Amino acid sequence: MDVRIERTRRALQEALFALAREHPLEEVTVADIATRAGVNRSSFYQHYSDKETLLADALDAAAELARANLPESPEPPADPPQALFDYLAHLDENAEVYRRVLGPHGSAVVMARLRARIESIVQEGIATSGTPAYEGLPLDIVGAGIAGSALGVIEAWLARDPRPPVATAADWLWRVLLGPGGSGTTPAAG
């Protein structure tokens, strides 16, 4: 990709991410994003069709920076992997943005992108692990179920006031993902 294109997209992503920390998404205009990014409105539309797609890209980029890709391993470890802590720390640092986009008035585009990302990680992990735990179930069904559970835990954690620490959220999420009978840590209070 052309360096200028990448630079413009990055500037737009960073601008919207910063604005989404300050204001509800529905209050942020394309003009606000373009001004913050230092580009004109036509540049915005050359790269993005709408602000929701831009926000989904911005959140993907932020997750990548937070090293939020779960490692592939044949068996899930008993304790949450560091990548999960890293991702939840990123969510915690940007809780207002994620509350807004994952909440009842949030972004369907962002939610779909996040769900698809989690489903893909789950399906790949199950396919490479050879685990018999989901034998006889279609991978897309397992991926959808686990992704829905993960998003539910994340939304509920972000909605709590006061919000429990990242370590507690990681424990909750990991225990839900492992399911009953899965190896896990001791229960965390919340």
UniProtKB/TrEMBL annotation:
**Record's keyword annotation contains ATP-binding:** no
Cite a single GO MF annotation: transcription cis-regulatory region binding
* Keywords from the named record: DNA-binding, Transcription, Transcription regulation
Task: Write the signal peptide boundaries.
Answer: none
DNA-binding region (UniProt annotation):
29-48
Instruction: Extract the Pfam families matched here.
Output: TetR_N (PF00440)
- Can you say what this protein is called? TetR family transcriptional regulator
Query: Which superkingdom?
Result: Bacteria
Q: Which organism is it from?
A: Agromyces bracchium
The record ties this protein, via InterPro entries, to:
Homeodomain-like_sf, HTH-type_TetR-like_transc_reg, HTH_TetR
The HTH tetR-type domain sits at 6-66
UniProt keyword Transcription regulation present: yes
